[in-house]
Amino acid sequence: MSLGKGKGEGGKGKGEREGRERKKIETFEDLKVWQKGIDLVKQIYLRTKEGELSKDFGLRDQLRRATVSIPTNIAEGFERYSRKEYLNFLNIAKGSAGEVCSLLRVALEVGYLDQPTYTQLSNQAMELSRMLSNQIQSINQSLKQ
User: Fold this and answer.
1) Given this model, what pLDDT does residue 23 score?
2) How far apart are the C-alpha atoms of 62 and 107, rounded to whole Å?
3) What confidence tens digit (pLDDT) does each residue in 89-141 have?
4) Looking at residue 11, what is its pLDDT?
5) By C-alpha distance, which of 113, 34, 17, 23 is closest to 72?
6) What span, in angstroms and rounded, lies between the C-alpha atoms of 132 and 87?
7) How many CB atoms lie within 10 A of CB 82?
8) pTM for this structure?
9) What distance lies between CA 7 and its chain's CA centroid?
10) Which listed residue, of 61, 62, 83, 126, carries a Cα 20 to 30 Å from 11's Cα?
């Protein structure tokens, strides 16, 4: 799938203008936003397998599911046949990023996460949300052309 031009993945960015070539996006695994989603999944699984959060099955499982939903929806949308379908899955992934942020705040408030861990994980989720927003805007612009 060609992702179009603009701020999102696959468009010409500052790096290309400076003579550095970006790797061509051929699979969802080439997407930086997907890679960062997988990084967040790994961090969440590591943080939820021990301590008090590991014993709160409801919160732990919901946090894991919401986090896994981000790269999974990016991948599923990428594999669809149209940009409109891809856009729909990116919106779902963005919603899941918001859910992760909310669940992390719950874990902080009930004492399952310390402040530094919460800040690190929350920042990762918010960065993913911003990247998804940029991707969505880029595709929306390309659909209007």
Assistant:
1) 77
2) 11
3) 999 999 999 999 999 999 999 999 999 999 999 999 999 999 999 999 999 99
4) 43
5) 34
6) 10
7) 11
8) 0.84
9) 16
10) 126
